[in-house]
Design goal:
The protein is of the alpha/beta class and about 600 residues long. It folds into two domains: about 325 residues, ABC transporter type 1, transmembrane domain (ABC transporter transmembrane region fold), CATH 1.20.1560; about 130 residues, Rossmann fold. The chain has 21 helices and ten strands. A six-stranded mixed beta sheet has the order 6-7-8-3-9-10, with helices on both faces. The protein has a four-stranded antiparallel beta sheet with strand order 2-1-4-5, covered by helices on one side. α18 links the parallel β7 and β8. α5 runs antiparallel to α11 and α8 runs antiparallel to α10. The protein is elongated and about 120 Å long. It starts with 11 loop residues before the first helix and ends with a helix. The N terminus is likely disordered. The structure holds adenosine-5'-triphosphate and magnesium ion. The site of adenosine-5'-triphosphate has 12 residues, from α12.
């Protein structure tokens, strides 16, 4: 599915730094975790040393003091190691959790503030997947890097120790290390590549799921369950395949590392063993050396494992920061002027606009003036650009040519908040949140509101009576997107929401889906109340709207072809006459 390709490579360090910045907000926790780590590392080296003492002094020399020392030493060492490892792991993981929490919040904040354009191009499921899955991967970034660093210290400590024990033996033991470097780098790259592929499949599954569930009615209505299930299966199968490859690569890299380790042990055994036979080396020394060597390969193996996590975290980071950075360039920006009203007029001056990727403009040289108190009806055939025109006013999209002035100033001069607070939108599709009826109506209220205000708005929108009949009245939850309400009820709630907001300018995209005559009549009355004493720009699909409009604007192919009153337009405008006969004629 369409996902923009993400470039890999040189950015890794930069991205890790950005992830780390989130962790750095929890410095105190990190400090404790790192203290734990610093204490744990030498404990490993110390235990190797104790083993040598145990074998040489206790088992071979039968030294009683040494026995006590070793016994107490082991207990103390293990307890200390346990305590500090706890501090390290606990605080590291919780700081990871908090960092991810912040990152997820930031990402959502960015997404919500992205311009409408962006949502045209992006799938909801993909965005959900980034917020839920990709952010989660980053959680491993710092802990893994710290772990990696810790293992580096362990390796250095143990390496110094093995060289101190017997540098000739150590030489044989570490001879294979350079050979381990190649598979390490190879598998890092491979894990990263597979990680990218997997995350993109996770996103595809999420897209399928989101689409399938929100379109469930259509799926059932067309009896397409089987097809949808198999589409989902296909998407999921791709995910499994790439997950499988990841598991394979991860296992392979671990086993390759182990094999390299066994070569080292073999070399040491061969060389050390022959020296023991020659009487050149004590058995204890060789055993201790092998213990140290075994200990040395543990952290190396863990370095490999943490590296896999780091690569995965980087995959997540690439995908998360891709959106964050996109936001940097194109976050919605308003001007600095507060729109305080009163509303005088809004003027379109030769406005041109094309949707990205479209091959013809949706608006083509539109000029139009709406004065305070007027009711302007926009009519035109489907796809002529009416909704697009209305969407320019709250700056969902900005004109590519020409300009739009509010009270004589370009829209872009005003802050987005003050601009959008000054207008009420009732869109073609009634959208409600899964909250109570009251919360939905009061959605646009700034600051507090009272039950009386909500009820007044509901009454004006002819919604009060049906609300009272709902199981819990104003406290009833309306279900996702308002599924628990009828079409007309939903529309009346959105009208009540606009009345409650009480904006001077109203932008109304009348629903095209026909309601039955009775609900239609009630919705019409509600709209009449809404439009009273307000300036309104109405995309008209109702006869009553065009008959009561001060001015009717006829739109065709993104252009205004004529404007005037109903009777005049009927006389002189062919397009209007045809539209009228087709859209309104039957109803009238
Ligand atoms: N989000 C979008 N991305 C790309 N093209 C779009 C988008 N929305 C609309 N269009 C195109 O722009 C043109 C105008 O669409 P618009 O929604 O403004 O029509 P409309 O007049 O409101 O139609 P209707 O009466 O059916 O609601 C159409 O050709 C449509 O295909
Ligand atoms: Mg429309």
């Amino acid at each position: 599915m369409a996902e923009s390709k993400i470039k890999g490579g040189g950015q890794s360090l930069h991205m890790l730094k950005r992830c780390l910045a989130y962790f750095m907000r929890y410095k105190a926790r990190l400090a404790v975790a790192i203290l734990g780590m610093v204490v744990v590392a030498p404990c490993s080296a110390a235990s190797a040393w104790l083993v040598k003492k145990a074998v040489d002094d206790v088992l071979i020399n039968k030294d009683v003091v040494a026995l006590k020392f070793v016994t107490v030493g082991i207990v103390v060492l293990m307890t200390a190691k346990g305590v500090f490892r706890f501090l390290q792991n606990y605080y590291m993981n919780t700081s990871g959790l908090l960092a991810i929490n912040d990152l997820r919040n930031d990402l959502y904040a960015r997404i919500v503030c992205l311009p409408m354009d962006y949502f045209n191009e992006s799938q909801v499921g993909m965005l959900m997947s980034r917020v839920l899955n990709d952010v989660g991967l980053i959680r491993a970034s710092l802990p893994s890097m710290v772990m990696f660093t810790r293992e580096v210290f362990s390796v250095i400590g143990l390496a110094v120790y093995v060289f101190y024990l017997d540098w000739k033996l150590a030489f044989w033991g570490t001879l294979v290390l350079p050979a381990a470097l190649y598979p390490f780098i190879y598998y890092s790259k491979r894990m990263r590549k597979l990680g990218r592929r997997t995350q993109s499949h996770v996103s595809d599954v999420s897209v399928r799921l989101q689409e399938g569930l929100s379109g469930i009615k259509v799926i059932k209505g067309f009896a397409k369950e089987k097809e949808e299930i198999s589409r989902f299966r296909d998407e999921n199968a791709k995910l499994v395949t790439s997950n499988n490859k990841q598991i394979l690569a991860s296992e392979q890299s671990s086993r390759v590392m182990e094999t390299v380790g066994s070569f080292a042990a073999g070399l040491v055994l061969w060389y050390g063993g022959s020296r023991v036979i020659e009487g050149d080396l004590t058995t204890g020394a060789l055993l201790s050396f092998l213990t140290a060597l075994a200990l040395l390969y543990e952290p190396i193996k863990r370095m490999n494992a943490t590296n896999i996590d780091i690569q995965m975290a980087l995959t997540g980071a690439e995908r998360v920061f891709e959106i964050m950075d996109k936001a940097d360039g194109i976050t919605e920006r308003g001007g600095s002027v507060e729109f305080t009203g009163p509303f005088r007029d809004i003027a379109f001056e030769d406005v041109t606009f094309s949707y990205s990727g479209a091959n013809r403009p949706a608006l083509d040289g539109v000029s139009l003036q709406v004065k305070a108190g007027e009711r302007i009806a926009i009519v035109g055939s489907s796809g002529s650009g009416k909704t697009t025109l209305a969407n320019m006013v709250p700056r969902f999209f900005d004109p590519q040519g020409g300009r739009i002035l509010l009270n004589g100033r370009p829209l872009a001069d005003y802050t987005l908040t003050s601009l959008r607070r000054s207008m009420g939108l009732v869109s073609q599709e009634a959208f409600l949140f899964n909250a109570s009826v009251r919360e939905n109506i009061a959605y646009g209220a700034v600051g507090g509101y009272s039950q009386e205000e909500v009820e007044a708005a509901a009454k004006a929108a002819y919604a009060h009576d049906f609300i009272l009949e709902l199981p819990e009245g104003y406290d009833t939850l309306v279900g996702e997107r308002g599924v628990k309400l009828s079409g007309g009820q939903k529309q009346r709630l959105t009208i009540a929401r606009a009345i409650m907001k009480n904006p001077p300018l109203l932008i109304l995209d009348e629903a095209t889906s026909a309601l039955d005559t009775e609900s239609e009549r009630i919705v019409q009355l509600a709209l009449e109340n809404l439009m009273q004493h307000r300036t309104s720009l109405v995309i008209a699909h109702r006869l009553s709207t065009i008959l009561t409009a001060d001015l009717i604007v006829v739109v065709e192919n993104g252009r205004i072809v004529d404007q005037g009153k109903h009777a005049k337009l009927l006389e002189r405008c062919d397009i209007y006459r045809t539209l009228y006969e087709m859209q309104f004629g039957a109803a009238g």
